[in-house]
TrEMBL record:
Involved in coproporphyrin-dependent heme b biosynthesis. Catalyzes the oxidation of coproporphyrinogen III to coproporphyrin III. Pathway: Porphyrin-containing compound metabolism; protoheme biosynthesis. Belongs to the protoporphyrinogen/coproporphyrinogen oxidase family. Coproporphyrinogen III oxidase subfamily. Residues 24-482 form the Amine oxidase domain. It catalyses: coproporphyrinogen III + 3 O2 = coproporphyrin III + 3 H2O2. GO terms for molecular function: oxygen-dependent protoporphyrinogen oxidase activity. Its cofactor is FAD. GO terms for cellular component: cytoplasm. It is found in: Cytoplasm. Transmembrane segments: none annotated. Its main location: cytoplasm. This is Coproporphyrinogen III oxidase. Pfam families: Amino_oxidase (PF01593).
Length: 495
């Protein structure tokens, strides 16, 4: 692979696309480009540059003593089809595993105790009445206020609203603090008071507009959901809402990387700057530790703040908008115990912790229950989440302090006693973008400014969704746009 500024005359018939970032977004974009080139029967050289010594980004799987440890996401949702479809195209369908059929529920902490989330309560929409009436999570006053939502008129204003404001307005303060905040915090590691409803969970805004009430919408949709479930069962569809990969989540990035062929990925190659070629017919990607690389198109998939640094010299106003996207840092701890060290029956997939409980963890996932193959029989494998936008100071604690937090919190909440079999700490600095108020307008501005630079493309979780399916969809859409742009410039279209 040529990695110098000048390209030999023999390579002029080949378009070169440089993908910056070897996380899932970068690998998916590169794979899509590679597949498109094969279909077009035209060579396209894809170069993936990754600053670290490994690909996969936040997806990281470690294996030890019969345990499978996930340092990032441990599964992905299937009601958005893009990640599932990608796995099928990669011939990974035999690797797909569902969450275990037993104990498909989660807990929320109430006064230091684990209480099941009311059955049928999905983020902020109650699909069943009786579980709300009987749950000890809410006081009777809180329950009555929540159920009064059906009488609250829809909001006529189109002004942007925070997630917290929306929930308080429709369901009341107690439902926000005791149910919605911890459940949403488990997804975005964010503060609902700052998060934009329209950017994070627009489906609930649409439910209010269409039905006038989320309760009314949930009850009407429940019948449709039952119909879809029966249709799914009769068609032989085999997956639940969440799936993982039998040999670990890193099978996905490793398979994507292998599909690109030898030499396509360069690790340990941090990018210093992206600039226009002197003849303005292409791009130059300057590295911190090697000769610059010339490209016909560039896809930046890195965090918004990292991309901003690369674009400072090219377009300061674009870089400024990218830097304005805030990020949260978090810690994921994988800790294993003998099962007899844990008093709690662990009869659920995990627990989320409301901020009003004033504890030092955001959530804990019981991975040996969620995916039993992840841990040997007779053991418990727990993932503990710390930090996020609501407790940023905890991210700066040293490893000893983190170990103390894990021991104290798991001891209090699920009765853990004694030393763990092992404990591994994974830190994710400034890794989770926060879709705060104004996010959609900012993304629109970023895209408008980026469009002034032909064949420069931006993608990643900073813009349109933080889940794996959203990431896959955005990266594939971006790769398709690159193919169209190169075709329009008379490059691959000539094939």
């Amino acid at each position: 692979m040529k990695t110098s500024l000048e390209r030999s005359s023999g390579s002029k018939t080949t378009d070169r696309v440089v993908v910056i970032g070897g996380g899932l977004s970068g690998l998916v974009a590169a794979h899509r480009l590679h597949e498109s080139a094969k279909q077009l029967r035209r060579p396209v050289e894809v170069v993936v540059l990754e600053a670290k010594d490994r690909v996969g980004g936040v997806i990281r799987t470690d294996r030890r003593d019969g345990f499978t440890l996930e340092g990032g996401p441990d599964s992905f949702i299937t009601n958005k089809p893009w990640a599932l479809d990608l796995c099928r195209r990669l011939n990974l369908e035999d690797q797909l595993i569902e969450t275990d059929s037993a104990h498909r529920r989660s807990f929320v902490v109430r006064n230091g105790r684990l209480v099941p989330v009311p059955e049928g309560f999905v983020l902020m929409a109650p699909h069943r009445l009786l579980p709300i009436l009987t749950t000890p999570i809410l006081s009777w006053r809180g329950k009555l206020r929540l159920l009064a939502e059906i009488m609250i008129p829809r909001r006529d204003s189109d002004a942007e609203e925070s997630l917290a404001s929306f929930v308080r307005r429709r369901f009341g303060r107690e439902a926000l603090e005791r149910l919605v905040q911890p459940l949403v915090g488990g997804i975005y590691t964010g503060d609902p008071g700052n998060l934009s409803l329209k950017a994070t969970l627009p489906q609930f805004l649409a439910m209010e507009k269409q039905y006038g009430s989320l309760i009314r919408a949930a009850w009407r949709q429940r019948g449709s959901a039952e119909t879809r479930r029966r249709e799914k069962e009769s068609s032989g569809a085999r997956y639940g809402m969440f799936v993982s990969l039998a040999d670990g989540m890193d099978v996905l990035p490793r398979t994507l990387a292998a599909s690109l062929g030898e030499g396509a990925i360069q690790t340990g190659r941090p990018v210093r700057r992206i600039s226009r070629r002197s003849d303005r017919a292409g791009w130059v990607v300057e590295l911190l530790n090697g000769p610059p690389i010339e490209a016909d198109a560039v896809i930046a998939t890195t965090e918004a703040h990292a991309t901003a640094r690369m674009l400072d010299g090219l377009d300061p106003s674009l870089a400024l908008q990218l830097r304005a996207i805030p990020y949260a840092s978090s810690i994921i701890v994988n800790v294993a115990y003998r099962r007899d060290q844990v008093k709690h029956p662990l009869d659920g997939f995990g627990v989320v912790v409301p901020a009003v409980e004033s504890r030092s963890i955001l959530a804990a996932s019981f991975l040996n229950v969620k995916f039993p193959s992840r841990a040997p029989a007779g053991s418990a494998l727990i993932r503990v989440f710390i930090g996020g936008a609501t407790q940023p100071d905890l991210f700066d604690l040293d490893d000893d302090a983190i170990r103390e937090i894990v021991a104290r919190e798991l001891g209090d909440l699920i009765g853990v006693r004694g030393e763990p079999l092992f404990l591994e700490i994974g830190r994710h600095p400034r890794a989770m973008p926060q879709y705060v108020l104004g996010h959609l307008e900012r993304v629109e501005t970023i895209r408008r400014k980026a469009a002034r630079h032909p064949n420069l493309f931006l993608t990643g979780i900073a813009f349109d969704g933080v889940g794996i399916p959203d990431c896959v969809h955005a990266a594939e859409t971006t790769a398709d746009a690159v193919v169209s742009a190169l075709a329009g410039s008379g490059s691959i279209a000539a094939a």
